[in-house]
Amino acid sequence: MFDPGFAASLASLSDHLSSLGQQEDALVAIQEAVDLHRQLAWDRPVAFDLDLAMSLNSLSDRLSSLGRQEDALAAIREAVELRRQLARDRPVVFNPKLAMSLHNLSIDLSALDHPEEALAAAKEAVELYRPLAKESPAVFKSDLVDALRLLPDLFRDLGQEEDAVAAEQEADALDSFEASSDSDDTDASSEASSGSDDADTSSSLA
Questions:
Q1: Spatial distance between the Cα atoms of 82 and 42, rounded to a whole number of angstroms
Q2: Is the pLDDT at 131 greater than 80, yes or no?
Q3: Structure pTM?
Q4: Mind listing the domains of the chain with CATH numbers?
Q5: 165: Cβ–Cβ under 8 A, 6 or more apart, which residues?
Q6: pLDDT of residue 181
């Protein structure tokens, strides 16, 4: 029986090695994690498809960082399909991960000159992030902005200038709103702190 804990440790090791710039070693570790998770998912897909999808997403990142775009694309395609199946049954839980994988898929497709597919993946990611950002803006609004920022170049690659401008404007509006909200929060915090200081001063005078 394959050890799920060992597979998870390999994935964590890969992340650590990658953060240290040791991309070749990171790739070896995540490839082994994928192989183990694939065997586990083969026997128990309900239990381990999620872990396999996560490892495949990381594998795609490692391959891309080493310039192996075709292999990276194959890995992220598989991750998307697994996460799509998971999201079909439990969208609340898995739509965020599906959106992230679609965003990465769009980047890889664009790098390999597949503009139509890249645009379709990017648009699907945006549509998944919209309700997430509406329900939990503190968590997902920045992801929505990043997804929108990917659209203009993809639209322009296909000669769709009006759509490109619309995506830019929406992203800018969200950025401006977020910056304004952050400024308001900072001002409110400063006022509260000032009020607290005044209260402390009054207390000491009393």
A1: 13
A2: yes
A3: 0.82
A4: 18-89 (1.25.40), 115-186 (1.25.40)
A5: 152
A6: 56
